[in-house]
Amino acid sequence: MPGSKSSSPAAKPGAFDQPLGLTVHSLPEPREAVVVDAQRTRRGRWKMLAVLAVCAAPMIASYFTYYVVRPEGRRNYGELVEPQRPMPALAATDLAGKPVDTATLKDQWLLVSVAGGACDAACEQHLYLQRQFRESLGREKDRMDWVWLVNDDVPVRDALKPALQQATVLRVDGAQLAQWLAPAPGHQLPDHLYVVDPMGNWMMRFPAGREQADAAKVRKDLDRLMRGSAGWDKPGRPE
């Protein structure tokens, strides 16, 4: 306004003459830093181990169930083989006469029958039951193969071959086979169905001539094996 005097406020003497205040944070001692880093590393490792344990728990439980808390004999219809017998290097060919490495049978559960190429009525019944038992596993059936081991040189009838399209049929040396699989006292190899685990170990034998009459018991045993190994056994063979 006219006649008025405008001016900035006078600065107080010494207002900007005071030194700035700085807060200095002390640095950790080298020894203290090492201790802190070590603690962080340990915590990180424990967390990682905890995550791994959670992820591995189903597999560990499955191994424990199958190999440690194995069902007692009275709970099984099939007879457990003790000790288990590893699959030997059998001389084998397919029905076309092509050599087959029996090690390729591993990594799957096997439901095995043994019979000569003539395949009498008992042999045909076993082949039928093998297919039915595998199908009864439902979505787990891809974890089991049904196998017919032909233990002589008799040709397999052409009429039988269409029913064997989903089976593995191998002609093996009978003497070598007898060093691996064995029947119950008083019986012959073709009298039984045999179970081989994915590692190639013969581990169970079903009672001779009773599989059809006691089909529900056989299915229960097979289902128990599938459930007990679910954590570590997967469908199909690794490529």
TrEMBL record:
Spans traversing the lipid bilayer: 49-69
InterPro entries assigned to the protein according to its UniProt record, in alphabetical order: Thioredoxin-like_sf (IPR036249)
Keyword terms: Membrane, Transmembrane, Transmembrane helix
Bias type Low complexity, positions: 1-15
Region feature Disordered, mapped onto this chain: 1-23
Protein name per Swiss-Prot or TrEMBL: Cytochrome C oxidase subunit I
Originating organism: Ramlibacter terrae
